[in-house]
Automatic annotation (TrEMBL):
<keyword id="KW-1015">Disulfide bond</keyword>
<protein>
    <submittedName>
        <fullName>Hypothetical conserved protein</fullName>
    </submittedName>
</protein>
<dbReference type="InterPro" id="IPR050553">
    <property type="entry name" value="Thioredoxin_ResA/DsbE_sf"/>
</dbReference>
<dbReference type="Pfam" id="PF00578">
    <property type="entry name" value="AhpC-TSA"/>
</dbReference>
<dbReference type="InterPro" id="IPR000866">
    <property type="entry name" value="AhpC/TSA"/>
</dbReference>
<feature type="domain" description="Alkyl hydroperoxide reductase subunit C/ Thiol specific antioxidant">
    <location>
        <begin position="19"/>
        <end position="126"/>
    </location>
</feature>
<dbReference type="InterPro" id="IPR036249">
    <property type="entry name" value="Thioredoxin-like_sf"/>
</dbReference>
Length: 146
């Protein structure tokens, strides 16, 4: 995906939704949406997701979708994914991308990966491979000023 691309329409048909109901893209419009790709075997991912708790408090109407993508075969264990994600102090729907169809759709190369969409569903920011969320905070602040 590239900046200004539109949020994919078929998110609700992808992956294994293990927390929250499948959400159609049209229901995400109106508020900024953050899509977070992570993996249970990625320590940087866990650091980044802990930092998202602060951002979620600050921007409490932003939607967050967590998409787990496997880095190795052992990462496909749904119980492990559920247990690890239950430790997050953030709210949002959670999807296991066991066949990596969403990862391919978003062209994820590194995790953690953050895809920030504006209120109209346009991609405004991409960050991958870094756990620091300060730039993400700045981009969210800009979306709320518009």
């Amino acid at each position: 995906m590239r900046i200004n691309d539109t949020m994919p329409e078929n998110l609700h048909r992808q992956g294994n939704w293990y927390q929250g109901r499948p959400i159609q893209t049209k229901h995400l419009l109106g508020n900024p949406t953050l899509i977070v790709f992570w993996s249970v075997s990625c320590n940087s991912c866990l650091v980044a997701i802990r930092q998202l708790s602060r951002l979620q408090s600050k921007y409490n109407d932003a939607q967050i979708l967590f998409i787990h993508t496997p880095l190795m075969e052992e990462d496909n264990n749904l119980n492990l994914i559920r247990n690890k994600s239950s430790q997050f102090n953030v709210h949002g729907s959670k999807i296991a991308d066991r066949d990596e169809s969403l990862s391919k759709l978003f062209q994820v190369k590194y995790v953690p990966a953050f895809y920030l969409f504006d209120q109209q569903g346009k991609l405004r920011y991409i960050q991958s491979g870094k756990s620091n969320t300060s730039l993400l905070d700045n981009k969210l602040a800009r979306l709320y000023r518009k």
